[in-house]
TrEMBL record:
Classification lineage: Bacteria, Pseudomonadati, Pseudomonadota, Alphaproteobacteria, Hyphomicrobiales
Residue stretches making up the Response regulatory domain: 2-115
An annotated GO cellular component: protein-DNA complex
NCBIfam families: cztR_silR_copR
Protein name (database record): Response regulator
Matching InterPro entries: CheY-like_superfamily, CusR-like, OmpR/PhoB-type_DNA-bd, Sig_transdc_resp-reg_receiver, WalR-like, WH-like_DNA-bd_sf
UniProt modified residues of type 4-aspartylphosphate: D51
Organism: Rhizobium straminoryzae
Amino acid sequence: MAILIIEDDPKTGDYLRKGLRECGYSVDLARTGTDGVHMAMQQSYDLVVLDVMLPGMDGWEVIHRIRERGDMPVVFLSARDDVSDRIRGLRLGADDYLVKPFSFVELELRIRTILRRGIVRESDVFEAADLRLDVLRRKVTRDGVEIALTNKEFMLLHLLMKRQGEVLSRTQIASEVWDMNFDSDTNVVDVAVKRLRAKIDGPFQQKLISTIRSVGYSLSA
């Protein structure tokens, strides 16, 4: 298995190259985004480990160029730990997103899992009854009518539709959407769901978002 590491920090790049070679992988290392794209275009790799903050060309642009070539699996490895950054990376086609500082054992396990399962892309469009969410276009419609959502409302709906039929606790929602540990004295999740429900369910007869008493929320058709 051949892996390409695109990482500008010398210590991190050398550490990853040494560790992955010891795990039996064939490993190449690029120090800039530009060099990484060039190498990815010249050779077929089984997986790319990609930093976001790179000289010459950042990781967002690199994965865009790589995706033009084909479905080479990509794992982001970045110090940028905002939920919005993780979502952006996954929307651009990354297979995983690991935040620095990281555990090498965890990284290697995630790489092994991706290589074992093959390429699995998250859907760009989610549907429940007449509700439709288009991730790439950031567009939500119900019964053909477009619904304007704030960024957090869109992220909340995306989570509920992605986990359609599951009951999500307030803690899970707070962690995924706000990247925060849920405080029982904070009603941010309940307020956000109430506002989202008013837009998604209010004008329509069929209600999709349910409150599960003492547990959390669920969306299902």
